Amino acid sequence: MTIVAPSSSSLRSRLAQQPYLLLTLTSLFWAGNGVLGRFAAGQIPPVTLALLRWGVAFLLLLPFAWRPLAADWPILRARLGFMVLLSLIGISIFNTLQYTALQYTTALNVLLLQSAGPLFMAMWSLLLLRVRLTWAQAGGMIVSLIGVLVILLRGDLAALGTISLNRGDLIFLGAMFVFGVYPVLTLKRPAMHELSFLAFTFGCGAALLVPLAAAELMWRPAPAATMTNMMTVAYVAVFSSILAYLCYNRGVRLIGANRAAPFLHLVPAIGAALAIFLLGEHLELFHLVGFALVLAGVAVAARSRIET
To answer: Each residue of 108-153: pLDDT tens digit?
Structure first.
């Protein structure tokens, strides 16, 4: 018997039909982005990091996206204002605010605030699309949020009383408020090749950041061309940008913004796991309990039907 290995195109086709796997990979890539964003604070100015991230991602993607981008240009030109708005919200504003917030706040506060992402998405879905949460979706979000809190508070609810909002917290809360509208608006995007969509939004988002980055470098030193900084930019450009957005946009298109929203709870959960692996922290019972709750909440919310 001859065993034929599946082709790469066949594997990509199967992967493209697995929304839960795609959204889980997105959470993994974005968890790494949060860790590196905090690590880069003080090394790379926030607007500069955002510009490098999207500029490098655009240049890496362009050779693969050139032909579909040229073919889709009439569609893009017809909806140019909408596409620029998407680029501004999902690329320029959110990530700049995120990297700025990480200059001032703690990892615990950022992860807690990131867990509010699905609530903002649900709010924007209701306001813009008139989509209501089902009881199962709401319950799933609550369960997964409890799981996140168990992990982040190390099973000690009394730690909630020690958390206070600072400038970074408020900036990041604003970032989550802005990003909440992005997956909702992507459902209204014009029909085009996925590479065309990403190449345009990455390039446009980077271009919109150029004036801010130039102003930033007038009062902050330019980042040093160290191996660490270059590896940081490489990760956020390839994994947190190209691969994460390919996975995320496809996942949202397959199951909708509300059903995809609970997967954001995996970002802080995975972030805690990365801290255990990379920083040598010990795995404890509350980690297992919290992560089990996160997965249970995601499973319940993602499989429920949407009310309109």
So the answer is: 667 667 766 777 777 787 777 777 777 777 787 788 778 777 766 6
Nearest alpha carbon to residue 239 among 49, 57, 111, 64: 57
* pLDDT over threshold 80, residue 286: no
What pLDDT does residue 2 have? Answer: 42
- Region 178-188: what's the mean pLDDT? 84
- Please state whether the predicted TM-score (pTM) of the whole model is above 0.90: no
Q: Give me 168's structure tokens.
A: 């970074």
Beta strands in 67-140 (DSSP E): none
Nearest to 244 by CA among 111, 107, 61, 6: 61
For 164, other C-beta atoms within 10 Å of its C-beta total: 7
Q: How far apart are CA 120 and CA 185, in angstroms?
A: 13
Cα angle 80, 57, 192; round to 5? 40
Distance between CA atoms of 152 and 287, rounded to whole angstroms? 9
d(CA 168, CA 30): 19
Banded pLDDT at 5 (limits 50, 70, 90): very low
Residue owning tokens 């996206």: 65
pLDDT tens digits, one per residue of 91-111: 999 889 989 988 887 666 676
Tell me the longest C-alpha to C-alpha distance in the chain: 68
- Count Cβ atoms below 10 Å from residue 176 Cβ, excluding itself: 23
Phi, psi of 115, rounded to the nearest 5 degrees: -70, -15
